Amino acid sequence: MQDENSGLREGEFLIEGGKEKLWRQVTPTWVHDGRVTSQIFKPTPKDIGELSVTRQSKVTPKEAYDYYTRILNLNSVGVYSVDVDEVRGEGLRAVDDSMVEDGETRPPGHSFIDFKHLTSKGSRERRGANLRDKAEKRGWQYRPGVADEQ
Amino acid sequence: MGTEARGFGSWHLKGGRYEQRGLPVEVLSEFARYERLVIDVAKGIYKRRHAMRQRVPRGFTSSFSLRLSEVRRGSVIPVLEVAPQDSSTLFDDDDSGIFEEARLVIQRALKSIGEGDGIPGDFPVNALREFSRFGRSLQANETIEFDEGTPQAASYSQSIRRLIHEQARLDKFEIEALITGQVTALHADKGTFEFRLSRSGKVVNGHFQSDDVVSDLKQYLDRSSMAPTVAMNAVLIQSMDEEVIEIQDVLAVEPVLPSEWSERLAELQSLEPGWLGGVGLQVTRRVLREAESLLLEFLDEGIERPYIYPTEEGGVQFEWPFSTGEVNLHVLPDGSVEVLAFSKTDERERLEKFDWRQLHEIAVSVLGGMADYAG
Protein backbone atom coordinates (compact mmCIF):
# COMPACT_ATOMS: atom_id res chain seq x y z
CA MET A 1 0.00 0.00 0.00
CA GLN A 2 1.28 3.48 -0.81
CA ASP A 3 1.81 6.14 1.82
CA GLU A 4 -1.46 7.99 2.12
CA ASN A 5 -0.44 11.38 0.79
CA SER A 6 3.04 10.87 -0.57
CA GLY A 7 3.78 12.30 -3.98
CA LEU A 8 0.49 14.13 -4.37
CA ARG A 9 0.71 17.36 -6.36
CA GLU A 10 -0.83 20.62 -5.29
CA GLY A 11 -4.59 20.43 -5.76
CA GLU A 12 -4.69 16.61 -5.58
CA PHE A 13 -6.31 14.89 -2.60
CA LEU A 14 -7.30 11.37 -1.63
CA ILE A 15 -10.94 10.40 -1.97
CA GLU A 16 -12.18 9.39 1.49
CA GLY A 17 -15.66 7.89 1.10
CA GLY A 18 -15.08 4.16 0.78
CA LYS A 19 -18.38 3.37 -0.93
CA GLU A 20 -18.15 6.15 -3.51
CA LYS A 21 -18.12 4.75 -7.00
CA LEU A 22 -15.61 5.74 -9.63
CA TRP A 23 -16.81 5.75 -13.24
CA ARG A 24 -14.67 4.25 -16.01
CA GLN A 25 -15.51 4.63 -19.72
CA VAL A 26 -15.34 1.42 -21.76
CA THR A 27 -13.78 1.58 -25.23
CA PRO A 28 -15.94 -0.35 -27.77
CA THR A 29 -13.25 -2.77 -28.99
CA TRP A 30 -12.36 -3.64 -25.42
CA VAL A 31 -15.54 -5.70 -25.19
CA HIS A 32 -15.38 -9.17 -26.75
CA ASP A 33 -18.35 -11.50 -26.52
CA GLY A 34 -19.73 -9.34 -23.73
CA ARG A 35 -16.55 -9.51 -21.65
CA VAL A 36 -14.48 -6.42 -20.94
CA THR A 37 -10.69 -6.71 -21.01
CA SER A 38 -8.69 -6.34 -17.81
CA GLN A 39 -6.84 -3.56 -19.66
CA ILE A 40 -9.81 -1.34 -18.80
CA PHE A 41 -8.53 -1.05 -15.22
CA LYS A 42 -4.84 -0.99 -16.00
CA PRO A 43 -3.04 2.19 -17.01
CA THR A 44 -1.71 2.07 -20.57
CA PRO A 45 1.48 3.90 -21.58
CA LYS A 46 -0.53 7.07 -22.29
CA ASP A 47 -1.79 7.13 -18.71
CA ILE A 48 1.68 7.29 -17.05
CA GLY A 49 0.49 5.21 -14.12
CA GLU A 50 -2.70 7.22 -13.57
CA LEU A 51 -5.95 5.51 -14.59
CA SER A 52 -8.61 8.13 -15.33
CA VAL A 53 -12.00 7.86 -13.62
CA THR A 54 -14.72 10.31 -12.54
CA ARG A 55 -16.46 10.53 -9.16
CA GLN A 56 -20.00 9.48 -8.29
CA SER A 57 -20.31 12.45 -5.90
CA LYS A 58 -19.66 14.90 -8.74
CA VAL A 59 -21.31 13.40 -11.83
CA THR A 60 -23.77 10.68 -12.73
CA PRO A 61 -22.47 7.91 -14.99
CA LYS A 62 -24.67 9.30 -17.78
CA GLU A 63 -23.14 12.77 -17.35
CA ALA A 64 -19.67 11.22 -17.37
CA TYR A 65 -20.54 9.32 -20.53
CA ASP A 66 -22.02 12.36 -22.26
CA TYR A 67 -18.97 14.50 -21.48
CA TYR A 68 -16.60 11.80 -22.76
CA THR A 69 -18.47 11.17 -25.99
CA ARG A 70 -19.90 14.63 -26.80
CA ILE A 71 -17.41 17.11 -25.38
CA LEU A 72 -14.24 15.10 -25.75
CA ASN A 73 -15.64 13.34 -28.83
CA LEU A 74 -14.26 9.96 -27.81
CA ASN A 75 -15.78 6.48 -28.16
CA SER A 76 -17.40 4.65 -25.27
CA VAL A 77 -19.99 1.87 -25.15
CA GLY A 78 -20.88 2.56 -21.54
CA VAL A 79 -19.67 2.97 -17.99
CA TYR A 80 -18.18 0.43 -15.55
CA SER A 81 -17.38 1.23 -11.93
CA VAL A 82 -15.37 0.22 -8.88
CA ASP A 83 -15.68 1.80 -5.43
CA VAL A 84 -12.93 3.41 -3.40
CA ASP A 85 -12.74 0.52 -0.92
CA GLU A 86 -12.17 -1.90 -3.80
CA VAL A 87 -9.35 0.30 -5.04
CA ARG A 88 -7.80 0.34 -1.57
CA GLY A 89 -8.26 -3.42 -1.33
CA GLU A 90 -5.81 -3.74 -4.22
CA GLY A 91 -3.24 -1.57 -2.45
CA LEU A 92 -4.00 1.41 -4.66
CA ARG A 93 -5.28 4.88 -3.89
CA ALA A 94 -8.01 6.97 -5.52
CA VAL A 95 -6.94 10.57 -6.08
CA ASP A 96 -9.13 13.55 -7.04
CA ASP A 97 -7.15 15.87 -9.32
CA SER A 98 -10.04 17.99 -10.57
CA MET A 99 -8.73 21.04 -8.66
CA VAL A 100 -5.20 20.92 -10.04
CA GLU A 101 -4.40 24.17 -11.83
CA ASP A 102 -1.92 23.25 -14.51
CA GLY A 103 -3.74 24.65 -17.54
CA GLU A 104 -5.20 21.26 -18.48
CA THR A 105 -8.95 20.92 -18.89
CA ARG A 106 -10.27 17.90 -17.01
CA PRO A 107 -13.74 16.36 -17.11
CA PRO A 108 -15.99 17.24 -14.14
CA GLY A 109 -15.11 15.09 -11.10
CA HIS A 110 -11.95 13.82 -12.76
CA SER A 111 -9.84 11.56 -10.56
CA PHE A 112 -7.36 8.77 -11.05
CA ILE A 113 -6.44 5.40 -9.60
CA ASP A 114 -2.75 5.57 -8.81
CA PHE A 115 -0.64 2.71 -10.17
CA LYS A 116 2.64 4.67 -10.28
CA HIS A 117 4.33 2.76 -7.47
CA LEU A 118 3.79 -0.62 -9.16
CA THR A 119 6.78 -1.63 -11.24
CA SER A 120 6.13 -5.22 -12.31
CA LYS A 121 3.87 -6.02 -15.23
CA GLY A 122 2.25 -8.82 -13.25
CA SER A 123 1.35 -6.61 -10.30
CA ARG A 124 -0.39 -4.07 -12.58
CA GLU A 125 -2.22 -6.75 -14.55
CA ARG A 126 -3.32 -8.59 -11.41
CA ARG A 127 -4.88 -5.44 -9.99
CA GLY A 128 -6.45 -4.57 -13.33
CA ALA A 129 -7.97 -8.04 -13.57
CA ASN A 130 -9.28 -7.94 -10.00
CA LEU A 131 -10.86 -4.51 -10.46
CA ARG A 132 -12.39 -5.63 -13.76
CA ASP A 133 -13.87 -8.69 -12.01
CA LYS A 134 -15.43 -6.48 -9.34
CA ALA A 135 -16.78 -4.03 -11.91
CA GLU A 136 -18.10 -6.89 -13.99
CA LYS A 137 -19.96 -8.29 -11.01
CA ARG A 138 -21.58 -4.90 -10.46
CA GLY A 139 -22.52 -4.65 -14.13
CA TRP A 140 -22.95 -1.72 -16.48
CA GLN A 141 -23.61 1.54 -14.66
CA TYR A 142 -24.77 3.29 -17.79
CA ARG A 143 -25.19 2.30 -21.40
CA PRO A 144 -26.79 4.55 -23.99
CA GLY A 145 -30.26 3.34 -24.83
CA VAL A 146 -30.50 1.12 -21.75
CA ALA A 147 -32.66 2.83 -19.12
CA ASP A 148 -32.11 1.54 -15.60
CA GLU A 149 -28.58 0.28 -15.15
CA GLN A 150 -27.46 2.84 -12.54
CA MET B 1 -21.88 -63.35 -73.49
CA GLY B 2 -21.84 -62.92 -69.74
CA THR B 3 -25.22 -62.03 -68.41
CA GLU B 4 -24.45 -61.78 -64.71
CA ALA B 5 -22.05 -59.59 -62.82
CA ARG B 6 -19.16 -61.49 -61.27
CA GLY B 7 -16.90 -60.68 -58.37
CA PHE B 8 -13.53 -59.06 -59.02
CA GLY B 9 -11.23 -59.96 -56.16
CA SER B 10 -11.77 -58.74 -52.64
CA TRP B 11 -10.83 -55.52 -50.90
CA HIS B 12 -10.60 -54.77 -47.22
CA LEU B 13 -10.04 -51.13 -46.24
CA LYS B 14 -8.43 -50.73 -42.84
CA GLY B 15 -7.24 -48.01 -40.46
CA GLY B 16 -7.97 -44.30 -40.18
CA ARG B 17 -11.28 -43.33 -41.74
CA TYR B 18 -12.16 -46.94 -42.41
CA GLU B 19 -12.49 -47.82 -38.75
CA GLN B 20 -15.88 -46.12 -38.69
CA ARG B 21 -19.03 -47.50 -40.19
CA GLY B 22 -19.61 -46.71 -43.85
CA LEU B 23 -17.40 -45.85 -46.79
CA PRO B 24 -16.19 -42.23 -46.96
CA VAL B 25 -17.61 -40.90 -50.22
CA GLU B 26 -14.37 -39.08 -50.99
CA VAL B 27 -12.63 -42.42 -51.64
CA LEU B 28 -15.10 -43.43 -54.33
CA SER B 29 -12.79 -41.91 -56.94
CA GLU B 30 -10.21 -44.50 -55.86
CA PHE B 31 -12.33 -47.23 -57.47
CA ALA B 32 -12.34 -45.32 -60.74
CA ARG B 33 -8.56 -45.04 -60.60
CA TYR B 34 -8.33 -48.76 -59.87
CA GLU B 35 -10.51 -49.49 -62.88
CA ARG B 36 -8.23 -47.40 -65.12
CA LEU B 37 -5.19 -49.14 -63.66
CA VAL B 38 -6.64 -52.59 -64.41
CA ILE B 39 -7.39 -51.50 -67.97
CA ASP B 40 -3.87 -50.11 -68.47
CA VAL B 41 -2.25 -53.25 -67.10
CA ALA B 42 -4.53 -55.41 -69.27
CA LYS B 43 -3.54 -53.33 -72.31
CA GLY B 44 0.12 -53.90 -71.47
CA ILE B 45 -0.42 -57.65 -71.16
CA TYR B 46 -2.35 -57.68 -74.44
CA LYS B 47 0.32 -55.77 -76.36
CA ARG B 48 3.08 -58.00 -75.04
CA ARG B 49 1.10 -61.03 -76.07
CA HIS B 50 0.31 -59.58 -79.51
CA ALA B 51 3.60 -57.90 -80.30
CA MET B 52 2.69 -57.30 -83.92
CA ARG B 53 -0.36 -55.22 -83.07
CA GLN B 54 -0.02 -51.48 -82.77
CA ARG B 55 -3.16 -51.05 -80.74
CA VAL B 56 -5.56 -52.98 -78.58
CA PRO B 57 -8.83 -53.92 -80.29
CA ARG B 58 -11.52 -51.29 -80.62
CA GLY B 59 -13.83 -51.52 -77.64
CA PHE B 60 -11.12 -52.91 -75.37
CA THR B 61 -11.52 -50.20 -72.73
CA SER B 62 -15.29 -50.12 -72.79
CA SER B 63 -15.46 -53.89 -72.45
CA PHE B 64 -14.42 -53.63 -68.82
CA SER B 65 -16.43 -51.84 -66.24
CA LEU B 66 -16.47 -52.22 -62.48
CA ARG B 67 -19.46 -51.74 -60.23
CA LEU B 68 -19.43 -51.20 -56.50
CA SER B 69 -22.28 -53.50 -55.57
CA GLU B 70 -22.08 -53.55 -51.79
CA VAL B 71 -20.19 -52.17 -48.81
CA ARG B 72 -19.87 -54.62 -45.94
CA ARG B 73 -18.88 -53.85 -42.40
CA GLY B 74 -15.60 -54.50 -40.65
CA SER B 75 -13.63 -52.31 -41.16
CA VAL B 76 -14.92 -51.48 -44.65
CA ILE B 77 -15.27 -54.20 -47.24
CA PRO B 78 -16.31 -52.88 -50.63
CA VAL B 79 -17.55 -55.52 -53.03
CA LEU B 80 -16.52 -54.95 -56.63
CA GLU B 81 -18.09 -56.73 -59.55
CA VAL B 82 -17.40 -56.72 -63.24
CA ALA B 83 -20.43 -55.54 -65.12
CA PRO B 84 -21.65 -58.04 -67.72
CA GLN B 85 -20.36 -57.22 -71.22
CA ASP B 86 -20.43 -58.99 -74.56
CA SER B 87 -16.71 -59.36 -75.26
CA SER B 88 -16.90 -62.75 -76.99
CA THR B 89 -16.00 -61.23 -80.35
CA LEU B 90 -13.30 -59.02 -78.89
CA PHE B 91 -10.97 -61.58 -77.34
CA ASP B 92 -9.84 -65.03 -78.27
CA ASP B 93 -9.62 -67.72 -75.62
CA ASP B 94 -6.15 -66.65 -74.45
CA ASP B 95 -7.34 -63.16 -73.67
CA SER B 96 -10.77 -63.86 -72.28
CA GLY B 97 -9.59 -63.47 -68.70
CA ILE B 98 -7.19 -60.62 -69.37
CA PHE B 99 -8.68 -58.22 -66.82
CA GLU B 100 -8.55 -60.88 -64.12
CA GLU B 101 -4.90 -61.44 -65.11
CA ALA B 102 -4.31 -57.71 -64.81
CA ARG B 103 -5.78 -57.73 -61.32
CA LEU B 104 -3.34 -60.44 -60.23
CA VAL B 105 -0.38 -58.70 -61.92
CA ILE B 106 -1.16 -55.60 -59.86
CA GLN B 107 -1.29 -57.62 -56.65
CA ARG B 108 1.95 -59.47 -57.48
CA ALA B 109 3.60 -56.11 -58.04
CA LEU B 110 2.34 -54.76 -54.72
CA LYS B 111 3.51 -57.88 -52.91
CA SER B 112 6.92 -57.73 -54.55
CA ILE B 113 7.37 -54.05 -53.67
CA GLY B 114 6.16 -54.68 -50.11
CA GLU B 115 8.71 -57.48 -49.70
CA GLY B 116 11.50 -55.23 -50.91
CA ASP B 117 11.90 -56.86 -54.31
CA GLY B 118 10.78 -53.85 -56.30
CA ILE B 119 8.44 -53.60 -59.26
CA PRO B 120 8.49 -56.92 -61.19
CA GLY B 121 10.14 -56.72 -64.58
CA ASP B 122 7.00 -57.91 -66.34
CA PHE B 123 4.83 -55.12 -64.97
CA PRO B 124 3.61 -53.09 -67.99
CA VAL B 125 5.53 -49.82 -68.24
CA ASN B 126 2.54 -48.10 -69.81
CA ALA B 127 0.60 -48.64 -66.58
CA LEU B 128 3.19 -47.12 -64.23
CA ARG B 129 1.66 -43.65 -64.39
CA GLU B 130 -1.80 -44.94 -63.48
CA PHE B 131 -0.21 -47.20 -60.88
CA SER B 132 1.26 -44.11 -59.23
CA ARG B 133 -2.09 -42.34 -59.20
CA PHE B 134 -4.02 -45.17 -57.62
CA GLY B 135 -4.24 -44.78 -53.85
CA ARG B 136 -3.57 -41.06 -53.73
CA SER B 137 -6.41 -40.53 -51.25
CA LEU B 138 -4.99 -43.07 -48.79
CA GLN B 139 -3.88 -41.50 -45.54
CA ALA B 140 -0.77 -42.48 -43.62
CA ASN B 141 -2.49 -44.97 -41.33
CA GLU B 142 -4.75 -46.57 -43.94
CA THR B 143 -4.26 -49.72 -46.01
CA ILE B 144 -6.07 -51.68 -48.68
CA GLU B 145 -5.82 -55.44 -48.30
CA PHE B 146 -6.44 -57.34 -51.52
CA ASP B 147 -7.61 -60.98 -51.47
CA GLU B 148 -6.84 -61.27 -47.79
CA GLY B 149 -6.00 -64.80 -46.60
CA THR B 150 -5.28 -66.14 -50.09
CA PRO B 151 -1.95 -66.83 -51.85
CA GLN B 152 -2.61 -63.70 -53.97
CA ALA B 153 -2.95 -61.45 -50.93
CA ALA B 154 -1.34 -58.03 -51.22
CA SER B 155 -1.35 -54.91 -49.14
CA TYR B 156 -1.32 -51.31 -50.35
CA SER B 157 -0.41 -48.26 -48.31
CA GLN B 158 1.01 -44.80 -48.85
CA SER B 159 4.52 -46.08 -48.04
CA ILE B 160 4.29 -48.75 -50.75
CA ARG B 161 2.94 -46.13 -53.10
CA ARG B 162 5.96 -43.96 -52.43
CA LEU B 163 8.24 -46.91 -53.26
CA ILE B 164 6.41 -47.29 -56.57
CA HIS B 165 7.23 -43.68 -57.36
CA GLU B 166 10.87 -44.09 -56.41
CA GLN B 167 11.31 -47.32 -58.30
CA ALA B 168 9.43 -46.13 -61.35
CA ARG B 169 11.80 -43.15 -61.29
CA LEU B 170 8.89 -40.77 -61.21
CA ASP B 171 10.31 -37.56 -59.77
CA LYS B 172 6.88 -36.25 -58.89
CA PHE B 173 4.26 -37.74 -56.67
CA GLU B 174 0.54 -37.10 -56.96
CA ILE B 175 -1.35 -37.12 -53.70
CA GLU B 176 -4.58 -35.87 -52.18
CA ALA B 177 -3.82 -33.95 -49.03
CA LEU B 178 -4.90 -31.11 -46.80
CA ILE B 179 -2.65 -28.06 -46.93
CA THR B 180 -2.92 -24.71 -45.21
CA GLY B 181 -1.98 -21.38 -46.66
CA GLN B 182 -3.31 -18.27 -48.34
CA VAL B 183 -4.82 -17.60 -51.74
CA THR B 184 -2.70 -14.72 -53.09
CA ALA B 185 -3.71 -14.58 -56.77
CA LEU B 186 -6.55 -15.88 -58.89
CA HIS B 187 -6.88 -16.10 -62.69
CA ALA B 188 -10.41 -17.43 -63.02
CA ASP B 189 -10.39 -17.39 -66.82
CA LYS B 190 -7.26 -19.56 -66.94
CA GLY B 191 -8.33 -21.84 -64.10
CA THR B 192 -5.20 -21.02 -62.10
CA PHE B 193 -4.30 -19.40 -58.81
CA GLU B 194 -1.33 -18.86 -56.50
CA PHE B 195 -1.14 -20.28 -53.02
CA ARG B 196 1.28 -19.31 -50.25
CA LEU B 197 1.98 -22.36 -48.10
CA SER B 198 1.87 -21.76 -44.34
CA ARG B 199 4.54 -24.34 -43.58
CA SER B 200 7.28 -23.04 -45.85
CA GLY B 201 6.06 -19.62 -46.96
CA LYS B 202 6.66 -20.78 -50.54
CA VAL B 203 4.19 -19.63 -53.21
CA VAL B 204 3.09 -22.44 -55.55
CA ASN B 205 0.96 -22.39 -58.67
CA GLY B 206 -2.42 -24.05 -58.56
CA HIS B 207 -5.03 -25.25 -61.04
CA PHE B 208 -8.67 -26.09 -60.62
CA GLN B 209 -10.92 -28.17 -62.83
CA SER B 210 -14.31 -27.11 -61.53
CA ASP B 211 -15.60 -23.55 -61.76
CA ASP B 212 -17.47 -24.20 -58.53
CA VAL B 213 -14.36 -23.43 -56.49
CA VAL B 214 -13.87 -19.97 -58.06
CA SER B 215 -16.22 -18.26 -55.61
CA ASP B 216 -14.45 -19.90 -52.65
CA LEU B 217 -11.00 -18.95 -53.89
CA LYS B 218 -12.22 -15.42 -54.59
CA GLN B 219 -13.72 -15.12 -51.12
CA TYR B 220 -10.36 -15.83 -49.47
CA LEU B 221 -8.19 -14.02 -52.01
CA ASP B 222 -5.96 -11.20 -50.82
CA ARG B 223 -2.33 -10.17 -50.55
CA SER B 224 -0.36 -12.51 -48.31
CA SER B 225 -0.32 -9.99 -45.48
CA MET B 226 -4.14 -9.83 -45.57
CA ALA B 227 -5.52 -13.12 -46.81
CA PRO B 228 -6.97 -15.43 -44.17
CA THR B 229 -5.32 -18.80 -43.72
CA VAL B 230 -7.41 -21.51 -45.34
CA ALA B 231 -7.34 -25.28 -45.36
CA MET B 232 -7.37 -26.67 -48.87
CA ASN B 233 -8.15 -30.26 -49.73
CA ALA B 234 -6.28 -30.62 -52.99
CA VAL B 235 -4.60 -32.92 -55.45
CA LEU B 236 -0.94 -32.05 -55.06
CA ILE B 237 2.16 -32.72 -57.06
CA GLN B 238 4.91 -33.35 -54.54
CA SER B 239 8.58 -34.03 -54.99
CA MET B 240 9.86 -37.29 -53.53
CA ASP B 241 10.98 -35.38 -50.43
CA GLU B 242 7.36 -34.28 -49.93
CA GLU B 243 7.81 -30.69 -51.02
CA VAL B 244 4.68 -29.31 -52.69
CA ILE B 245 5.54 -28.44 -56.29
CA GLU B 246 2.12 -27.61 -57.65
CA ILE B 247 -1.58 -27.87 -56.86
CA GLN B 248 -3.20 -29.88 -59.60
CA ASP B 249 -6.81 -29.56 -58.50
CA VAL B 250 -8.83 -28.07 -55.67
CA LEU B 251 -11.41 -30.31 -54.04
CA ALA B 252 -12.52 -28.01 -51.20
CA VAL B 253 -11.48 -24.80 -49.45
CA GLU B 254 -12.50 -23.60 -46.02
CA PRO B 255 -11.18 -21.15 -43.45
CA VAL B 256 -8.96 -22.71 -40.84
CA LEU B 257 -10.10 -20.64 -37.91
CA PRO B 258 -13.72 -20.88 -36.79
CA SER B 259 -15.61 -17.89 -38.16
CA GLU B 260 -16.06 -16.16 -34.79
CA TRP B 261 -12.27 -16.21 -34.28
CA SER B 262 -11.43 -14.79 -37.69
CA GLU B 263 -14.28 -12.27 -37.53
CA ARG B 264 -12.82 -10.88 -34.31
CA LEU B 265 -9.42 -10.47 -35.99
CA ALA B 266 -11.17 -8.71 -38.87
CA GLU B 267 -12.72 -6.28 -36.37
CA LEU B 268 -9.26 -5.45 -35.03
CA GLN B 269 -8.02 -4.97 -38.57
CA SER B 270 -10.60 -2.23 -39.14
CA LEU B 271 -9.55 -0.09 -36.15
CA GLU B 272 -8.75 3.53 -36.95
CA PRO B 273 -5.77 5.31 -35.36
CA GLY B 274 -6.85 6.93 -32.08
CA TRP B 275 -9.38 4.20 -31.28
CA LEU B 276 -8.46 4.33 -27.57
CA GLY B 277 -9.44 7.66 -26.07
CA GLY B 278 -7.80 9.56 -28.93
CA VAL B 279 -4.63 7.46 -28.86
CA GLY B 280 -4.27 3.77 -29.74
CA LEU B 281 -2.23 2.65 -32.73
CA GLN B 282 -3.68 0.64 -35.58
CA VAL B 283 -3.03 -3.10 -35.37
CA THR B 284 -0.89 -3.88 -38.40
CA ARG B 285 -1.65 -6.75 -40.76
CA ARG B 286 1.62 -8.35 -39.77
CA VAL B 287 0.65 -8.41 -36.09
CA LEU B 288 -2.76 -9.82 -37.02
CA ARG B 289 -1.15 -12.60 -39.07
CA GLU B 290 1.07 -13.42 -36.09
CA ALA B 291 -1.99 -13.49 -33.84
CA GLU B 292 -3.72 -15.73 -36.36
CA SER B 293 -0.78 -18.15 -36.40
CA LEU B 294 -0.94 -18.37 -32.62
CA LEU B 295 -4.68 -19.01 -32.69
CA LEU B 296 -4.14 -21.78 -35.24
CA GLU B 297 -1.59 -23.36 -32.92
CA PHE B 298 -4.01 -23.10 -29.99
CA LEU B 299 -6.73 -24.69 -32.09
CA ASP B 300 -4.38 -27.60 -32.86
CA GLU B 301 -3.44 -27.92 -29.20
CA GLY B 302 -7.07 -27.89 -28.09
CA ILE B 303 -6.67 -24.62 -26.18
CA GLU B 304 -9.99 -22.86 -25.74
CA ARG B 305 -10.56 -19.64 -27.61
CA PRO B 306 -9.28 -16.64 -25.67
CA TYR B 307 -10.92 -13.25 -25.43
CA ILE B 308 -9.15 -11.11 -28.03
CA TYR B 309 -8.45 -7.37 -27.67
CA PRO B 310 -6.28 -4.69 -29.26
CA THR B 311 -3.69 -2.90 -27.15
CA GLU B 312 -2.78 0.78 -27.16
CA GLU B 313 0.63 0.11 -28.75
CA GLY B 314 -0.86 -1.68 -31.78
CA GLY B 315 -0.55 -5.19 -30.35
CA VAL B 316 -3.09 -7.88 -29.65
CA GLN B 317 -3.90 -9.29 -26.22
CA PHE B 318 -5.43 -12.73 -25.60
CA GLU B 319 -7.01 -13.28 -22.19
CA TRP B 320 -8.05 -16.48 -20.44
CA PRO B 321 -9.68 -15.28 -17.20
CA PHE B 322 -10.32 -17.71 -14.34
CA SER B 323 -11.63 -17.09 -10.84
CA THR B 324 -8.26 -17.61 -9.12
CA GLY B 325 -5.92 -16.32 -11.79
CA GLU B 326 -5.55 -15.26 -15.38
CA VAL B 327 -3.39 -16.04 -18.38
CA ASN B 328 -2.72 -13.10 -20.68
CA LEU B 329 -0.78 -13.26 -23.91
CA HIS B 330 0.45 -10.11 -25.57
CA VAL B 331 1.49 -10.07 -29.24
CA LEU B 332 3.75 -7.02 -29.44
CA PRO B 333 4.29 -4.97 -32.59
CA ASP B 334 7.98 -5.94 -32.67
CA GLY B 335 7.15 -9.62 -33.28
CA SER B 336 7.70 -10.73 -29.70
CA VAL B 337 5.14 -12.44 -27.51
CA GLU B 338 4.76 -12.25 -23.74
CA VAL B 339 2.79 -14.79 -21.73
CA LEU B 340 1.88 -13.67 -18.24
CA ALA B 341 0.16 -16.05 -15.85
CA PHE B 342 -0.78 -14.55 -12.50
CA SER B 343 -2.73 -15.39 -9.40
CA LYS B 344 -5.61 -13.17 -8.34
CA THR B 345 -5.32 -14.26 -4.74
CA ASP B 346 -1.60 -13.94 -4.00
CA GLU B 347 1.57 -12.52 -5.54
CA ARG B 348 2.43 -15.49 -7.78
CA GLU B 349 3.18 -14.53 -11.38
CA ARG B 350 5.15 -15.98 -14.27
CA LEU B 351 6.20 -13.92 -17.26
CA GLU B 352 7.77 -15.62 -20.29
CA LYS B 353 8.94 -13.96 -23.49
CA PHE B 354 9.13 -15.53 -26.95
CA ASP B 355 9.57 -14.79 -30.61
CA TRP B 356 6.12 -15.20 -32.21
CA ARG B 357 7.44 -18.08 -34.35
CA GLN B 358 7.96 -20.24 -31.25
CA LEU B 359 4.37 -21.35 -31.59
CA HIS B 360 4.71 -24.65 -29.78
CA GLU B 361 6.67 -23.19 -26.85
CA ILE B 362 4.08 -20.41 -26.52
CA ALA B 363 1.24 -22.95 -26.47
CA VAL B 364 3.07 -24.92 -23.77
CA SER B 365 3.46 -21.76 -21.71
CA VAL B 366 -0.25 -20.93 -22.03
CA LEU B 367 -1.22 -24.49 -21.10
CA GLY B 368 1.07 -24.29 -18.07
CA GLY B 369 -0.67 -21.12 -16.89
CA MET B 370 -4.07 -22.65 -17.48
CA ALA B 371 -3.10 -25.72 -15.48
CA ASP B 372 -2.26 -23.43 -12.55
CA TYR B 373 -5.49 -21.44 -12.53
CA ALA B 374 -8.24 -23.13 -14.55
CA GLY B 375 -10.76 -25.11 -12.54
Structural class of chain B: alpha+beta
> What does the largest sheet of chain A look like?
6 strands, antiparallel
Strand residue percentage of chain B: 25-35%
Which structural category fits the helices and strands of chain A? alpha+beta
Q: What is the H/E order of chain B?
A: EEHEEHHEEHEEEHEEHHEEEEEH
Give the end-to-end Cα distance of chain A, rounded to a whole number of Å.
30 Å
Give the biggest beta sheet of chain B: 5 strands, mixed, barrel
Looking at how many chains there are and whether they match, the oligomeric state comes to heterodimer
Mean pLDDT across residues of chain B: 87
Q: How do the strands of the widest beta sheet of chain B line up side by side?
A: 7-8-9-11-10
Total helical segments of chain B: 8
Helix content of chain B: 25-40%
Total E-strand runs of chain B: 16
Most extensive chain interface and residues per partner? A-B, 25 and 30 residues
For the largest sheet of chain A, list the strands in their spatial order. Answer: 1-7-8-5-2-6
Features:
heterodimer, A: about 150 residues, alpha+beta, 6-stranded antiparallel β-sheet, two-stranded antiparallel sheet, 3 helices, 8 strands, about 20% strand, globular, B: about 375 residues, 5-stranded mixed β-barrel, 5-stranded antiparallel β-sheet, elongated
Q: How would you concisely characterize the structure shown here?
A:
The complex is a heterodimer of chains A (150) and B (375). Chain A is of the alpha+beta class and 150 residues long.
Q: Overview of this structure, please?
A:
The complex is a heterodimer of chains A (150) and B (375). Chain A has 150 residues and is of the alpha+beta class. Helices cover 23% and strands 22% of the residues of chain A. Chain A contains three helices and eight strands; from the N terminus they run E-E-E-E-E-H-E-H-E-E-H. The longest helix of chain A has 18 residues, at 121-138. Chain B contains eight helices and 16 strands. Chain B has helices spanning 28-49, 98-114, 128-133, 158-167, 214-220, 259-269, 285-301, 359-373, and strands at residues 6-7, 11-14, 66-73, 76-82, 143-146, 154-157, 172-187, 192-197, 203-207, 230-239, 244-255, 307-310, 316-321, 325-331, 336-343, 349-355. A five-stranded mixed beta barrel of chain B has the order 7-8-9-11-10. The longest helix of chain B has 22 residues, at 28-49. The termini of chain B are far apart. Chain A binds chain B through residues 25, 27, 29-30, 32-33, 35, 37-39, 44-46, 72, 74-75, 120-123, 125-126, 129-130, 133, and chain B through 264, 267-268, 271, 275-280, 307-313, 317, 319, 321, 326, 328, 338, 340, 342-344, 347, 349, 351.
